[in-house]
Amino acid sequence: MTIGLEHYLVLSALLFCIGLYGALTRRNAVIILMCIELMLNAVNISLVAFSSYIVPLLLTGQVFAIFVMVVAAAEVAVGLAIILAIYRHLTDIDVNNINLMKW
Amino acid sequence: MGLTIAFWIMAVVIIAAALSVIFLRNVFRAALMLILCFIAVAGIYITLSADFLAAVQILVYVGAISVLVILAIMMTREVQKGNPANKMQIPVAVVAAVLLGILVYAVTCTPWRLSPSAPLTPTTVPLATRLFSENGFILPVEIGALLLLAAILGAIVITREK
Lengths: 103, 162
Known about the structure:
Helices cover 75% and strands 0% of the residues of chain A. Chain A contains three helices and no strands. In chain A, α1 packs antiparallel against α2. Chain A is elongated and about 50 Å long. Chain A starts with a helix and ends in a 13-residue tail after the last helix. Chain B is mostly helical and 162 residues long. Helices cover 74% and strands 0% of the residues of chain B. Chain B contains six helices and no strands. Chain B is globular and about 55 Å long. Chains A and B meet through α1, α2 and α3 of A and α1, α2, α3, α4 and α5 of B.
């Protein structure tokens, strides 16, 4: 059985759903950021798969994947800075206890 | 044939590593599993003949982002109580399963118009041409540079001691 576009897309969907489940159920803020990275990687897999199966000579999907990586790097830097600032103020990174902005 | 075997190995490693990121009790081991998942994603890029992206994945994710994550885990070590879950596990599991079903249904039922030509194999030069050429993506590249600068400044300002 040869590997086709559908295999990569199903793998990407599976990884995205695992990341979604983790991001919504975990209470440790660092684990939530790690799950968001998993979801971004899942999107990147599907972008690169589209790029090499549908527009192999244009490489548009790979260009988009590069921009996703840039945004992911910025997001993880700011996100971890926010977690460290919260830790310094509250001495806790459990998101159930961080309810400063809860209305 | 070799490509098929490589794909299945990488897929199994990715799914197993992602599940253990979520379900391992020890946060540090979860971070190591995340690194394994990133390396396997780089292998998936290689099977898709995206060599430049595989190198960037190793450099950015395995080299930089995982170091940041491990640094954050070590700096918040005094309050780590493992990797507990909240009370929303069953509804979120239902939502994730429904989303997975919808995605798999959409993927398998769409008639994809596959291109007959083989993908370019050294992708570095074509990617650079796409990114930096006259009618390419030069404006998003500049905006990306600005975004990274703003993120660096923001991270420094947020974490600075008074």
